[in-house]
Amino acid sequence: MTIRLGVSLYSYQQTYLTGQLDLEGCIRTVVETTGATGIELIYEQMPLERYPDAVYPNITDKGISRWKELMDKYGTTPTCMDSFIDSKLYRGRISTVQEQIQMMEQDLKLASQLGFPCIRVLALVPPEVLEGALPAAEYYGVRMGQEVHPRFALNDEWMLNVAEISRRRNSKYVGLIPDFGIFSKGLPGSQLNLMKIMGENPDIVDFIEVSFKADFSHKEIAAQLRQMGAKEATVIAVERSAFMNRYNNPDLLKDLLDVIMHFHGKFTYMKEDCSEELTINYKDPIRILKEAGWDGYISSEFEGQRAYHGQNCPYEEDEIEQVRRHHVMLNRLLKS
Amino acid sequence: MDINQKYMIDPKDIRNVVSRDGNRIGFELQLIIPYYRGAALSMIDELYVKVGAILYPKEQLTFTVDGFSYTWPQIETVTTFRWEYGTKATVFVPQQGGLDVSPIQHIEVGCSIRRSYGGRFPAPVVVKVAVDPCKLKAIRYQ
């Protein structure tokens, strides 16, 4: 029973997009720069095959062999495949539950072909789709984990329903995948960093970080920022974050550990000294997992690059370095 | 949500298009999906090109990917072929004379993918580039 570490290749999306690393390069980079061996994949982001070989959700034996060769070559293990269920595939209507179950079955099949033990199901996929796909999950031996992602919380009825399905059906094939973003206080670190890059007074940005951590409300912080002479864009960003940002008490994990199969180690800004993520609490959730002897992977999911994708943003984040720093912190927390 | 806004268009990829009989019939540009994964072609919710004040809605555009060309509304029924992450698609804009030889042209492109989450109508990611038509290459179709 132990906590193991991995990386979601989503973390390297920009490096991949700009052609600096291909799929193999991403896998090699995980091993070389973090020492972790767990690989999480958004298949639809970095498919093993494309037209004319095979188009998602299909894959040929050659594509499957290629994946297994890569895992063998680098000593890596598939941990989780991210599933989407495109319920807006057709203009003008939402796919029916039955259609969404079919999509889930396709992803379960693909995940099993590639040796993934679980798939990440988006937070908004209805519980009846999970329950309807349960026979297929059991058939393929692939677990479905619904993502607990901001602005959801671990004790929302929506998430408790999924836990209830697992317990009522006595099945480990449905459960939860919390995203560490739910342990975030305030704005994402990358957004704070962007404010500094775009010329906001660093003292004002640091004030935002500290005051959220001290549990001041969005309204109180916004009012104070106006007095301090913050840019209007800064105040608006703080006000808007009220919708997405709901801090989850890490103690909420304790009642759900039996149905949690995997974690998304969401992060957007690791400090240079690798001491902590700027606004996400890793220390307490990891302590709880260790105390409970929870067994599974925490998969780093770096999302900070997106903050700098604006056309006129002069800054580009170094995804590989951010993931490396994240693992320095995670390894320290696991050992302490 | 401006995912990949700075990577969506490379101004160097913009070219005038010349027909077999030598007329400039429009221009084309290459586009990368404004999303972090690929999507079925039916999920392209919005696409437009603006040159100065002239708007070219998707119904006037031709979208080509993996060697296949589609127009609207037909593309909305294409669910088993995809615009993969990082794959450049070609967008053809019909405009007699192509892009004028002078002065600098301001081109705006908006595109959105109808993902399953995050609101009913995703706002397009909009990118604006300035192009010097004097430096444009032309492509001649057979």
Automatic annotation (TrEMBL), chain A:
InterPro entries associated with the record: IolE/XylAMocC-like, Xyl_isomerase-like_sf, Xyl_isomerase-like_TIM-brl
Domain Xylose isomerase-like TIM barrel positions: 31-310
Protein name as it appears in the record: Xylose isomerase-like TIM barrel domain-containing protein
Organism listed in the record: Cohnella fermenti
Organismal lineage: Bacteria, Bacillati, Bacillota, Bacilli, Bacillales
Automatic annotation (TrEMBL), chain B:
Domain of life where this protein originates: Bacteria
UniProt KW keywords: Carbohydrate metabolism, Lyase
InterPro entries, per database record: CGDB
Pfam family, one: CGDB
One Gene Ontology MF term: lyase activity
Residues covered by the C-glycoside deglycosidase beta subunit domain: 5-117
Family from the record: Belongs to the C-glycoside deglycosidase beta subunit family.
Listed name of the protein: C-deglycosylation enzyme beta subunit
Native organism: Cohnella fermenti
